[in-house]
Design goal:
There is one protein chain. The chain is of the alpha+beta class and about 100 residues long. It has one domain (about 1-95). Helices cover about 55% and strands about 20% of the residues. The protein has 4 helices and 4 strands. The protein has helices at about 15-20, 45-55, 60-80, 90-95; strands spanning about 1-5, 5-10, 25-30, 35-40. It has a 4-stranded antiparallel β-sheet. Helix 1 crosses helix 3 (about 60-80). The protein is globular.
Length: about 100
Amino acid sequence: MTQHRNNISFLDIHCAAFLELNGYPAKLENKNGRVIFVFPQTDEVYKLANAYNSNDLVHVADYISVLRTLKAKMYSLRDDQTARPGMTVWQEIIRTQ
């Protein structure tokens, strides 16, 4: 967990999914090839992060859905950053094989 001006960032996609499930959408940023999840720095976000670390109960199907969506966004952001301009991700994959 890292603090930036009025924001807090996480590397843990599972905690990010928990926060998003509880009403705080993640903003994804690519920092040196690593995707970080950025949230507003509020007391409620801190409480939810603590609840996640305390193994709070969740509706599993809803949590898995949010987790899958975050993973897709993460891979998309990472792939967009590494693909050559004008090439789709799949074109870049085929080119490198």
